[in-house]
Amino acid sequence: MDVKIRKVQNMSDGSKKADAGTKTSNGRWNSSPDRPCHIAEDSLLCSSNTLTNYRGFFTFSMILLVLSNLRVALENFIKYGLLINHKKILLDYVAHVNTFPVILVLLVSHLFIWTAFITEKLSLKNILSNRMVFMITFVNTSTILFFPAIIILASDINPLVASFCLMCYAILYLKLISYAHVNYWCRCDYFLKAKGGVTDFAPNANSSSHKSYPANLTIFNLYYFILAPTLCYELNYPRTKKIRKTFLLKRFLEVLFLPQVVFALCQQWIYPLMMNAVEPLKMMDYSRMLERMLKLAVPNIIIWLINFYFLFHSFLNFLGELLYFGDRGFYRDWWNAETSQYFWQSWNIPVHRWCVRHLYIPLLSRGYSKSFSNLLVFIVSAFFHEYLISIPMHIFRIWMFAGMLAQIPLNVLTTAVPKSHRIWGNFLVWLSIILGQPLIILMYFHDWYVDHQISRMTPASAKLATCVPNEPFVKFKP
């Protein structure tokens, strides 16, 4: 028998690795009475170990998440039965929702669009000075914010419909501000060239269909911008060559299907939780309020994610495909955000671009500091969030405004996290989304419910709508 003494290889880190040995002529491995079976190494879960593949834990987490949500869904169905009823929502909407003021307000929006267009035309002919253009634009855009708000406050309109109307007007406000800014820059450059001066703007002629000022001042060009999935006006947008029919069909089906999912989740999951949250909020029972908030956090974040996908992926891509709009960068990887600042810069690219182009950079160019400019951007964003919630609900509590301003210290906190531990910054960002939103929702719901519902309810229905003592759930009928 061939015998070979087994060698032990010294590793660079001081550990020893046993030699694999040799085979004999008959194909069998050599055996040795002192064959080593140990080597010097750290445990896999130690920080000094270089293992980075934890895919099994991700699989485990996903299974646990699915099972937990299935348990919650089953518990919800056992306690409340089936509450989903799209037909009832549609009938109630047709019978009780006053849509005439909203339709009227949306039709009047064309007046503001034409005012902006005529103003630019008159300024091109030197009929209006830059100062007059500024005054007309200021009055026109300010009226865009105040006009629908006054109509909604003076009318009994469903909050959801009113919020949609205000959102359309807020988008129109931002678009017309951008339209006025860009045309002002182009107009100044145009008149400077006419006088033989030197301009700071470089020509941009990337294609044969390139438009230059003032050829862009057409009503078709303005309405294309109003419909385009962007808030920043340009004379020439990147365009696609054709419509992808399969892609368009997928986005269209998502636009039809996802709102139904959201309505179903609100009926089956959110509504019972909100009704059960009234009594703890009235009694200021903090432990039960915390329990309600944690229960609301899961369905709220699910609905928020569905709404994000619906708006920024399905609807905006559907609109962009129809209009041959080439820039589809409506969002970035905000889910990996390690700071609050990156989250707000990446989850809503159209708004972020508008804020940088028409608010942040103009403030810097006028000598304001970066800190002040950032603060003003957050204040403007907080104002619009409050505008879209308080006015439709006819309550003014500034909870959303305060929540937006709270992002400033959160940004300081997440930025202070060392780069080697940035995963904790991402943890804080997600925690603020998951817990911050349901807290604000509960505060607004309590104020709206107390102001608008309890005064209209009969004693029997009011008793049903609150939690029974020592019973955390309301007995709803399907």
TrEMBL record:
Keyword Endoplasmic reticulum attached: yes
Keywords: Acyltransferase, Endoplasmic reticulum, Membrane, Transferase, Transmembrane, Transmembrane helix
Record's compositionally biased regions (Polar residues): 22-33
Domain of life from the UniProt record: Eukaryota
GO biological process: one example: triglyceride biosynthetic process
Active site location: 385
Residues spanning the membrane: 90-113, 133-153, 160-182, 213-232, 252-271, 301-325, 372-389, 395-415, 427-445
Compartment annotation: Endoplasmic reticulum membrane
Record-level GO cellular component terms: endoplasmic reticulum membrane
Keyword Transmembrane on entry: yes
Membrane topology: Multi-pass membrane protein
Region of interest (Disordered), residue spans: 1-34
Any coiled-coil regions, as ranges: none
Family of this protein: Belongs to the membrane-bound acyltransferase family. Sterol o-acyltransferase subfamily.
This protein's name: O-acyltransferase
Organism for this UniProt entry: Trichinella spiralis
Gene from which this protein is expressed: Dgat1
